User: What shape does this take?
Amino acid sequence: MDLCIHLPTAIPGVDAPTLLDWARRVEEYPFATVSALDRLVFPNYEPLVMLATVAALTTRVRLLTAVLLAPLRLSTALLAKQLATSTASPAAGWSWASESATAPTTSMRAARISTAAAAPSTGS
Assistant: This one.
């Protein structure tokens, strides 16, 4: 069984040195994965930055976002590049779909929803 540990990135009062200590010490234990949470309204650290830091401080653990709010990132191409860069780390076990580099914009999604809503219903 692979174990995952979640960085305390959203716990009030946890400072950057404590998070760095967690990242360094995680390899002393049998954890296979380190995760970080992405939230907009919580006072948490940015998960991709935190996981990149973990990647720099570790050699074997995989990286995981417990939640990644991709629609909040304004550029899907930049998000794709950030995720692809993370796979260059020796520790990264991150995978991502190539479709994220060409994901539709918000206006494209809105147009698709409008088109679908205007289409006649095929249900019985």
